[in-house]
Amino acid sequence: KMKSNNLDVKVPEPGLETEEKGMEEESARESDSSILDVSSDYPREKHISIQRHLADLEKLADLKEDEKKPCPLCPEEKFRACYSHKLHRHLQNLHWKVSVEFEGYRMCICHLSCRPVKPNVAGDQTLSKMGAHYHCIICSATITRRTDMIGHINRHVNKGETESRFITVPAPKSSREVVKESATDVQVLPNSSTPQKTDSYFNPKMKLNRQLIFCALAVLAEERKPIECLDAFGATGIMGLQWAKHLRTSVKVTINDCNENSVTMIQENCHLNKMKVKLNTKQEDGDEAMGDGEENTDTIEVTRMDANVIMHLRSFDFIHLDPFGTSVNYLDSAFRNVRNLGIVSLTSTDISSLYAKAQHIALRHYGCNIVRTEYYKELAARIVIAAVTRAAARCNKGVDVLLAVALEHFVLVVVRVLRGPTPADESAKKIRYLIHCQWCEERIFQKEGNMVEENPYQQLPCDCHGSMPGKTAVVLGPLWSGALFNTGFLRRMLFEAGQYGLDEAQPLLKTLVCEAECTTLKHFTTHSPYDENKQEECGVYIKTPNASAESSLAHGKRKSEEVIRNTPKRQKPESSAEHPAFYYNIHRHSIKGMNMPKLNKFLNYLSEAGYRVSRTHFDPMGVRTNAPLAQFKTVLRKYSTPTYTGGQAEGPVHLPEGILAGEQVQAAPDGKEEDAEFLEDDESGVATDYVVTTDYATHCATE
């Protein structure tokens, strides 16, 4: 039952400002006791403004159709007693709709005199003018604004203070929720998905990233068993638990995290999945086995160290880095002790710098100059690979890029480590600068060599520098200029994804295989990834289920003399097999006033013209092809249709020269003289391209 809402608070005039804070706390406690009519000793009930459902709030008012009832959260001078239908609308619109939700409870707005009011000059208090406020479910604070209340609750959550003062039983475990992913259960905190440096960070949107890394580890586990793998930033331990639960005897999993709360949560999640834990929180050999029985295949080692420290102290076959933001601070230690032919995978989530939104940060972290281009996602992947290659070369190791994926939330790079100065030199030579035309988006890597060219613009296939005033190109980089995918490794990843039922990763892996082979999806073949002709990788023969023991390498040992003798012959890949660098966006180069063809049909048109073509995962409307930009625009112009059929339709597609130009496109790969003749004849086409690029450049400059 409610008591009187008025409080008799006596405030002495001298020392008013010094004792104001203590007076507020005392009056708040008195107001709570007067409203709730309970003692201040625990256990205490929640404030009446904190309810789970609107019906619970209506029960406080004891609504009856034939009687007038006051509002339980408003004083009588603010809201008079009324009938049930009007009081129901009042509770729903004024109190319930503006409430703050937390763990199933609603903290409704309260208009009672729970907060003390500062006295005026005369010394009296005007309690009738008390403002609205919220009562915190975690502490006894009262907040006036809703946005401040949300921020107040978030600060509690970020500090891990989710236990309410109104509940006597500690509830850290009940506040956690169990998330299941790939047959693995993990407990996460309510703030696990917030993008902040919290104790345990679990992002459900990174499920595809975890599946790709699992497929890469499964492929490595087929080559040699057992392998020692490290999850350097465990957080909740979801990734390491999936490795141990599905691969079992093939892997020895180590989950590391430098935060004590995260290590505790990893141990609890291991027990939740019925796995034993081997705890090592020191940098020495101070291991403590948890659980009964001897160490078996279901044992996971959990360490609490800095990621750089554990990678310096121990050697691993597989290392995954997924820090908060950039991973460049951990590359040197990752490549220092990784074993030969091992795999290092890293996930970079600093997409603001990699995607050219914060260019100064990209220069600071990666030492790379970049601008926003139509192929910015592939540019980000090549930036990360260049940083990885330089870090490996400092440790006399080379890299073979197996996989590079850049999506909305992350950039994933997976490389195989090749030990020795010769692979390191060959990998370092693939780091080059890129010349990018800002008018037509044409791009080309600089030629190898240290000689300074008199006119660098001559390397670009376009003639924008001669027809446009001023400087038209910029130099980007240094970037990785080699291949981004290994076809054989991707096919084996696709095979493992099918074996373990990873449905979300299979469509992406099919796209990556087609992109690596630069073919369309209709030409995709599903032959066995473990054929004899696919066993060669990274210049050596790797161990597969169909391979003999003589063609495999011993685990952790150097190559034999026979393998070293035959290595140079195997390390020469076919130049035609490597996919073209970068891609073109069909919308970026569309013609104004024309309807471009469907993307799949356009791919067929380019393929019929004699060019290699495929789609790309970097851009849903991107086309990866070895066709020059001029020929790309020519085919696009030929098969585009006008948006209207009026007599004012423009464009070279209506001219007979356009049809003749399309015939010359098919013979374009045979020689460059015909390309030049076509560009000279089709003057109208050049003028049209000029208008489009000028409008686009003006639009970009305005933005």
From TrEMBL:
<dbReference type="GO" id="GO:0002940">
    <property type="term" value="P:tRNA N2-guanine methylation"/>
</dbReference>
<keyword id="KW-0820">tRNA-binding</keyword>
<keyword id="KW-0539">Nucleus</keyword>
<comment type="similarity">
    <text>Belongs to the class I-like SAM-binding methyltransferase superfamily. Trm1 family.</text>
</comment>
<keyword id="KW-0808">Transferase</keyword>
<feature type="domain" description="C2H2-type">
    <location>
        <begin position="136"/>
        <end position="156"/>
    </location>
</feature>
<dbReference type="GO" id="GO:0000049">
    <property type="term" value="F:tRNA binding"/>
</dbReference>
<dbReference type="InterPro" id="IPR042296">
    <property type="entry name" value="tRNA_met_Trm1_C"/>
</dbReference>
<keyword id="KW-0489">Methyltransferase</keyword>
<feature type="region of interest" description="Disordered">
    <location>
        <begin position="549"/>
        <end position="579"/>
    </location>
</feature>
<dbReference type="GO" id="GO:0016423">
    <property type="term" value="F:tRNA (guanine) methyltransferase activity"/>
</dbReference>
<keyword id="KW-0949">S-adenosyl-L-methionine</keyword>
<keyword id="KW-0862">Zinc</keyword>
<keyword id="KW-1017">Isopeptide bond</keyword>
<dbReference type="Pfam" id="PF02005">
    <property type="entry name" value="TRM"/>
</dbReference>
<feature type="region of interest" description="Disordered">
    <location>
        <begin position="1"/>
        <end position="37"/>
    </location>
</feature>
<keyword id="KW-0819">tRNA processing</keyword>
<dbReference type="InterPro" id="IPR013087">
    <property type="entry name" value="Znf_C2H2_type"/>
</dbReference>
<dbReference type="InterPro" id="IPR002905">
    <property type="entry name" value="Trm1"/>
</dbReference>
<keyword id="KW-0863">Zinc-finger</keyword>
<keyword id="KW-0832">Ubl conjugation</keyword>
<keyword id="KW-0694">RNA-binding</keyword>
<keyword id="KW-0597">Phosphoprotein</keyword>
<protein>
    <recommendedName>
        <fullName>tRNA (guanine(27)-N(2))-dimethyltransferase</fullName>
    </recommendedName>
</protein>
<keyword id="KW-0479">Metal-binding</keyword>
<feature type="compositionally biased region" description="Basic and acidic residues">
    <location>
        <begin position="18"/>
        <end position="32"/>
    </location>
</feature>
<dbReference type="GO" id="GO:0008270">
    <property type="term" value="F:zinc ion binding"/>
</dbReference>
<dbReference type="GO" id="GO:0005730">
    <property type="term" value="C:nucleolus"/>
</dbReference>
<dbReference type="InterPro" id="IPR029063">
    <property type="entry name" value="SAM-dependent_MTases_sf"/>
</dbReference>
